[in-house]
Specification:
3-stranded antiparallel β-sheet, 3 helices, Immunoglobulin-like, 176 residues, 5-stranded antiparallel β-sheet, globular, mainly beta
């Protein structure tokens, strides 16, 4: 009765050892997955105030798994030297104008974004998964619902930048 159990265990172990390790490029690669918007109350701005929370989801692959920045790295002054003009997550906002074309909307909020280390064991190796980035847009008397889309790219700790992807369009409050 024990022998079929051990035979099955060895069969499972044997088959699992045949799984090939993915062979991703060391330069990260991303694909747009989804964009969601949730309108929620903003209790800090008054009883009737609201804000839009936008969540952008991208799929990623990286050959050596050096994605993300640890909390210790984010606390150092060297971070500004290494990641000069943008962090490890670049988000560009494109606003639709009256002519129907999209123009880049300058934003200090999206200039230096970071996500945490994704491979916590620190060992080099391929990884893939999903990254969610949340941005908040507040309603005010100066804001107007505007059609926007986003350009996204990421980079690893070796400063290799991924391809750029664009999201679908959504409407969020933008100060005029």
């Amino acid at each position: 009765m024990r022998y079929p159990f051990f035979a099955g265990l060895f069969l499972i172990l044997g088959l699992s050892s045949c799984i090939d390790t993915p062979n991703f490029d060391d330069t990260p690669s991303i694909q747009f997955n989804n964009i969601d918007k949730f309108t929620v109350p903003d209790p800090f701005s008054g009883p009737t105030a609201k804000k839009d929370s936008v969540v952008i989801t991208i799929d990623f692959e990286d050959g050596d798994g050096d994605l993300g920045v640890s909390p210790e790295e984010r606390d150092t002054n060297a971070l500004n030297t290494i990641y000069k003009e943008w962090g490890n997550y670049e988000l560009t906002i494109l606003k639709k104008d009256a002519n129907g074309s999209f123009q880049e909307l300058p934003s200090s909020v999206t200039s230096k974004l970071f996500f945490p280390t994704l491979k916590r064991d620190g060992k080099p190796g391929p990884i893939k998964g999903k990254l969610d980035l949340s941005q908040t847009y507040f309603y005010s008397r100066f804001s107007k619902l505007s059609v926007v889309k986003f350009k996204v790219r990421i980079r690893d700790r070796a400063l290799r930048a991924s391809n750029v992807v664009e999201t679908d369009t959504i409407s969020v409050p933008i100060d005029q």
